[in-house]
Design a protein that fits this description.
Elements (H helix, E strand, L loop, with lengths): L10 H13 L2 E8 L4 E11 L5 E6 L3 H8 L2 E7 L11 E10 L5 H13 L12 E14 L5 E5 H4 L9 H15 L1 H11 L8 E6 L2 E6 L2 E6 L10 H14 L3
Antiparallel strand pairs: 1-2, 1-4, 2-3, 3-6, 4-5, 5-6, 6-7, 8-9, 9-10
Helix pairs in contact: 5-6, 6-7
């Protein structure tokens, strides 16, 4: 019997998978064509909900939209893009069920706000009547972190626990606006001093129990917290702590 090539899932593997989910701007979506019995793969722009669930925006004219309506089972491949051999970079395959969001609900409006922070150019078409948001409800994942680093992951390994973060969409929106308006210098320091990113007008685009996302142009960064937060009351102290740490690194 062949040896199982997968490794036990550890914190490093979880962190890598979550970073891929939070920073990938696009992915390969595989849906099922029941008529032909063949899989159908397409390139989609990817955002995330607060817990890390992938979110996509699709047109009714797209083949994959019609296929998801008929069979919501799907798979999404996310990859870290870089120089050299593409297979040397981490990638994550997610198994999920696609769920269309009713555009008139608060949930969809919150998803719209977050998605446009991650993909501002989508403002041009996001409200077209034939476009809809879909959340991909993750059931499992397969992470390849490089040669000899394969992991099978459950949904709990991939998504943030939101059980103590009630009504967090509104809190997040206010905190993001405040940080970008009043503390843009701190946001820039998070990116340059704690993530090693290039200088620029970095903006905060997401806050969740496990970290923050920042964007500059087409680049998205993930800064994980030293430990997951237990509730919204810990967000401000954590952001202050990170700002102090970033300032301490300036020569």
């Amino acid at each position: 019997m062949a040896k199982d090539p997968t490794l036990p899932v550890d914190d490093d593997a979880r962190a890598l998978a979550k970073r891929l989910m939070r920073t990938a701007r696009s992915g390969a979506l595989a849906t099922n064509d029941q008529e032909s019995g063949m899989p159908f793969a397409s390139l989609v722009q990817v955002g995330t909900d607060i817990d890390g669930s992938p979110v996509i925006l699709t047109s009714q004219l797209s083949v994959h939209t019609r296929l998801m309506e008929a069979d919501p089972r799907c798979s999404l491949l996310l990859s870290s893009i870089g120089k050299g051999d593409p297979l040397a970079h981490p990638r994550l395959t997610l198994q999920a069920t696609a769920e269309r969001l009713d555009r008139e609900t608060d949930e969809a409006r919150n998803i719209r706000r977050r998605y446009l922070l991650q993909h501002p150019k989508a403002e041009l078409y996001v409200d077209f009547p034939d476009f809809s948001f879909w959340r991909l409800k993750v059931s499992s994942g397969s992470l390849n972190g490089g040669f000899g680093r394969a992991y099978r992951m459950a949904a709990g390994d991939l998504l943030a626990d939101m059980s103590e973060f009630f009504d967090f969409y509104e809190f997040e929106a206010g905190a993001i606006e405040h940080m970008n308006t009043e503390h843009s210098d701190a946001v820039a320091l998070y990116a340059t001093q704690l993530c090693g990113a290039r200088e620029g007008a970095w903006r905060l685009i997401g806050i969740d129990p496990e970290g923050i996302q920042m964007a500059l142009g087409d680049d998205i960064l993930r800064l994980s917290f030293p430990k997951a937060l237990s509730g919204p009351h810990e967000v401000r102290p954590m952001l202050i702590r990170l700002a102090n740490e970033a300032r301490s690194r300036i020569a």
